[in-house]
Amino acid sequence: MMDVAVFPNLSPALAEIVLAVGAMLLLVFGVIRGERSTRTVTVLAVLLLIVAIVIVAAVSPAATTFGGSFKLDAFARFMKIAALAGSGFAISMSVTYSRREGFERFEYPVLILIGTIGMLLMISASDLISLYLGLELQSLAAYVVAAIHRDNARSTEAGLKYFVLGALSSGMLLYGASLVYGFTGHTQFDGIASMLVHGRSLGLVIGLVFLLAGVAFKISAVPFHMWTPDVYEGAPTAVTAFFASAPKLAAMALLVRVVEEAFRPITADWQQVIVFISVCSMVLGSFAAIGQRNIKRLMAYSSIGHMGYALVGLSAGSAQGVQGVILYMVIYMSMTLGAFACILSMRRNGEMVEDVASLAGLARSQPLVAFVFAALMFSLAGIPPLAGFFAKYYVFLAAIQANLFTLAVIGVLSSVVGAFYYLRIVKIMYFDEPEHAFEPAPVELRAVLGLSGIFALFFLFFMSPLVVAAGIAAKSFF
Amino acid sequence: MYSAIVFLPLLGAILAGLITIFGAAGRHPGGETGHGDEDHVTDAVGSEHGHGAPSVHGDAAAVHVAHHEPHDHHVPAAVGSRAAEIVTTALLFVSAILSWVAFFRVGVGSHELFTVPVLSWVHSGNLVADWTLRIDTLTVVMLVVVNTVSTLVHLYSIGYMSHDANRPRFFAYLSLFTFAMLMLVTANNFLQMFFGWEGVGLASYLLIGFWYHRPSANSASMKAFIVNRVGDFGFELGIFSIFVLFGSIDFDTVFGNVGAVAGSSAALHIFGHDFSGQAAITVACLLLFMGAMGKSAQVPLHTWLPDAMEGPTPVSALIHAATMVTAGVFMVARLSPIFAFAPTALMVITVIGAFTAFFAATIGLVQNDIKRVIAYSTCSQLGYMFAALGVGAPSVAVFHLFTHAFFKALLFLCAGAVIHAVSDEQDMRKMGGLRKKIPITYVAMIIGTLALTGFPFTAGYYSKDAIIESTYAFGGNVGGFAFVLLNVAAIFTSFYSWRLIFMTFHGAPRSSQEVQDHVHESPQIMLVPLYVLSIGALLAGVLGIGYFVEGGYGAFWKHALVLGEGNEIREAMEHTPFWVSSLPFVEMVIGFLVAFWFYIANPRVPAELAREHQGLHRFLFNKWYFDELYDRIFVRPAMWIGRFLWKRGDGWLIDGLGPNGVSARVLDITNRVVRLQTGYLYHYAFVMLVGVALLVTWMMFTR
């Protein structure tokens, strides 16, 4: 039991605290300085994220604090660094875009910061209550940024839809959490697990399903994905890039921690749920993306599919599986950020274009951009020796070692179907009748695209430290 | 030295090939304008497919249409044409000189069989095949024939092809062919021989289709290739049988053990029958002979040779008269130690050879295309050679091969000169009266004709008469059959040869005035080969008979050829009655007189005769309907099966259920899934709740 009189050890949560204080200071600063401060706030926000990375990586000790509801272990450390990096890239990618699109507000980086704090809390949460706190903090920030372009009807629609459905999912999650608490008498993961060793009741299983449904909504796994295409399309593209990257990673980390820490004794139960949503996500992600003409919607289905593949690793319920999930999320995030950097640079005559067909002839007007984008598409399709191949390799390998052959086969088949729409983009860029060239991309997008391209193309050469680190992170649960 | 003989042509081919490649790159700088050559190829091939007509047979109708040898006048000549010509011709010249040196050392001299190792090649289990040159009299005879004719043809081609834009490619192919042919004749094992065999087939294919922008040339080259595949299939099976029986494909090993295997119970198991001992060897020999039939255009695999005349005329002279088509004869002679143990196979060879000699001669009687007449003549003469092989006189066959190479190459090159003179016209009905305008060609062609028809003391007189005598000496049913057919064929040969001369050079000119104005004697570079070959056609027989057939036989051949036990044919040939040895001369005179009567004295007779015997004429004119028969039996069913498998099997079944079907289903699913995304919040919420409900239900029932 937590002793309220004892002041908790704050050092494991130092990054969150720094970020929170910094975010509030930036907010105050922005309010005082007005709209002109956006540039400064953006730069400071990125710096703050870098500081947080340093703190997570080097300063904070690995420990459990807040009476066992906050945990900083190797897994949390790894995922937090990835999430912080993803948020940092997402903020920097928005700079030119937000100015051109006319929603350059200092609140935007601050909101991302607050969302990032939520993500860090999600990653570290080892208690149902801290889990919910982190999740809601991140979600609330996300609802607002989805509608940040409030003069734009589609943006506000996206924000509203996201909010309403998010509220519904939160309700499910809370309902599930209350059932779990009711049937185990614990909110802390350790406690829940210790009770489940003695068997589980039907009520607990129902609670588990609701809990997982709530989390599945956050990673947009089928059938809780319905918001994704609409929100991805409606939200400003920079925001979509953010949604597709760090929050997904954080929510996946949360899911991993919940099932591996709290529900380890009933692996067979949650495995069924995860396999189900994994298969649904992979299949739907592959098939539905083929029908899309809007590149942002296409990326939405792509992310649904990729969440399915990542869940294949989780279904294995083994250290290798978790390692696969970690690698998958990191690789996916880096590829998707690169892809969005390219999408953000699809600008013609002062307006954004989002039609897949408008990529035609990119190979002639901007050969390098087209090449990197093509490499990213090949990587997303999972073609060796690019990064995306190894991501899929590790999760499928884990599934096979866990004797989940059917799941692995479905995964491979749906990735074949999925390859179609990735390769179609390459085909459009290289072989279709050229359209007018895009405006040159701003430097930050080119930088992100370059980094992402290097990551995808040369992953083979620096994968081993990453794989080892992911392996160590995965050992946190075993 | 022997390696030099073989590999100098290869060097030439490679150099000319490099010139071709770099020349092509230079002709299309940047490659932006498209690679003209390749485009043409695809066009031509594409149109073949587009027709849907039986392409292998496609030009049977075109036989009757006047052919033109199309030089590409519009395209600038490839860079380095001159260099390619000089390099290849010079290298071959050296090679030819060395071959003659080898001939005098090994054949006329006293060198026994020896081998020149080149490199180790295949070592796989029992199968050992090293690259070794086998040099004996048979080899050097072939070396001389191949390299001499090839050099002369190279030389001739410099003149003949001077208007063509793609000369480097042409000379590269020619030299490549020569190399492959040399590989074939110097082979020391079956695999090496097969390598050369296929190499000449490839070169033949490339050269027949040299003018690839002409659909008829493309289909002719494909036809040659495909018909040869049939023969090669047999040849391969033969090689496999040899390996099964002997456990080796090395010539020395195989030849040394034929007697042992024939007496043993080593067996081939084919279609439920066991063939052991001699029967097994007979089977192997027949299979090997099948390969020879394909390459040497024997009935029923002869159909490709006349069509092969689509290639440039020097090619016809080199490949489709003097060298490659004799590969089958060479092969049977080379393998005479094996065939000696297979009398049944030899009998088959005799019958096929004699029949081909007769059959091709009958067709030659009525053809109008100057090159086709000579092509059928070639086919017929090859039949003579096989008849001689069959009756157990390989030395006579090789002797005829040797003399035939000279006079047939001469005839083809003369035909080329004629075609060249009359502006690429090949139809003899549009020639006539050329005697005075191109006298040198005329004389050379007369010499070639005399040699072919066996005028006394010319080359053919010795070799062809020796073949006829050998069949008589062999006797029996088979010998008698061959004897009769070959004699009849000799009359026909004389007739169609003189017919060719009369139609082309005598009578009133039948070509257009414009063509006549342009008629001119060929340049010296084309005439020199004619001189040399004329000398060969006149003297090869009289000089060779002593070595090849008569007194010097043993000292010349040494042990290169092996005859079966109890083969008395050489003695028997010495004692043929006078009427037999004088018969060919009589036949030659008959043929000449009839031709003279038909085409000089009484030019209306042929047309009347053709009208009176319309059926027979049409039968011969359409080449015994072999092409039509094959078209009906093989080509059309094959096309039908191909079309069926393509449209129904691949298109409908595999593509339908496979790629197309799957992708169509994928699209169906996609469309259905996309429709779920309505944009309404309550639908989305509904889906989420249904999902949860489903999962809860599932978990409740599976717990």
Q: What is the count of helical runs of chain B?
A: 29
Find the structural class of chain A using helix and strand composition: mainly alpha
- Spatial order of strands in the largest sheet of chain A: 1-2
Radius of gyration of chain A, whole Å: 21 Å
Protein name (chain A): NADH-quinone oxidoreductase subunit N
Keywords (chain A): Cell membrane, Membrane, NAD, Quinone, Translocase, Transmembrane, Transmembrane helix, Transport, Ubiquinone
Membrane topology (chain A): Multi-pass membrane protein
InterPro entries (chain A): NADH-Q_OxRdtase_suN/2 (IPR010096), ND/Mrp_TM (IPR001750)
Helix and strand topology:
The complex is a heterodimer of chains A (478) and B (703).
Chain A (H helix, E strand, L loop, with lengths): L13 H20 L4 H22 L3 E3 L4 E3 L1 H28 L5 H18 L3 H19 L6 H32 L4 H8 L5 H17 L8 H8 L2 H8 L1 H17 L4 H24 L4 H22 L2 H26 L2 E2 L2 E2 L9 H4 L1 H15 L5 H15 L3 H27 L11 H15 L1 H16 L4
Antiparallel strand pairs in A: 1-2, 3-4
Helix pairs in contact in A: 1-2, 1-4, 2-3, 2-4, 3-4, 3-10, 3-11, 3-14, 3-20, 4-5, 4-11, 5-6, 6-8, 6-9, 8-11, 8-12, 9-10, 9-13, 10-14, 11-14, 12-13, 12-18, 13-14, 13-17, 13-18, 14-16, 14-17, 14-19, 14-20, 16-18, 16-19, 17-18
Chain B lengths: L1 H26 L8 H16 L29 H28 L5 E11 L2 E9 L1 H24 L6 H19 L4 H19 L6 H32 L4 H13 L3 E4 L2 E4 L1 H18 L8 H4 L5 H10 L4 H8 L1 H4 L3 H22 L5 H21 L3 H28 L17 H15 L5 H16 L1 H30 L7 H6 L5 H25 L4 H5 L11 H6 L3 H24 L3 H8 L1 H8 L4 H32 L1 H18 L4 H22 L1
Antiparallel strand pairs in B: 1-2, 3-4
Detailed description of the structure:
Chain A: Its EC number is 7.1.1.-. Chain A: Its main location: membrane. Chain A: NDH-1 is composed of 14 different subunits. Subunits NuoA, H, J, K, L, M, N constitute the membrane sector of the complex. The complex is a heterodimer of chains A (478) and B (703). By secondary structure, chain A is mainly α. Chain A is built from 20 helices and 4 strands. In chain A, strand 1 and strand 2 (70-72) form a beta hairpin. In chain A, helix 6 (153-184) packs antiparallel against helix 9. The longest helix of chain A has 32 residues, at 153-184. Chain A is globular, with a radius of gyration of 21 Å. In chain A, 63% of the residues are buried. Chain B has helices at residues 2-27, 36-51, 81-108, 137-160, 167-185, 190-208, 215-246, 251-263, 278-295, 304-307, 313-322, 327-334, 336-339, 343-364, 370-390, 394-421, 439-453, 459-474, 476-505, 513-518, 524-548, 553-557, 569-574, 578-601, 605-612, 614-621, 626-657, 659-676, 681-702; strands at 114-124, 127-135, 267-270, 273-276. In chain B, a hairpin with a 2-residue loop joins strand 3 (267-270) and strand 4. The interface between A and B is medium-sized, with 34 and 27 residues.
